Structures are given as C-alpha cells and as structure tokens.
Amino acid sequence: MEEKQYRLMGRSGALAMAFGIVTVVFGITCGVIMIVEGARLLVSRSKILF
Asked: Can you tell me the distance from the alpha carbon of 32 to that of 50, in angstroms, rounded to the nearest whole number?
C-alpha cells in the first residue's frame, strides 16, 4: 500500500512542476505581448484625430 502512495506522490509532484513551468512560460509570453501592444498604442496615439 505504501508503494502505491509513494508513486502517487511522485506523479503529483511531477504534474505540479509541469503545470508550474507551463504557467511561467504563459505568463512571460502574455507579459511580452502586452508590452509590445502597449508600445504600439503609444506610438500610434499621435495618428488619432478628434
């Protein structure tokens, strides 16, 4: 019984690490996209006529 719990803990830890890595990569990607789009908005701000 203990071996089954040991394997389950190992799989849970590996899954948590995988989700953590995916979350970090996704967060960095979203941050870079937001910075680029914000810069584009600031540059094109002068082209707007009211």
From this structure: 30
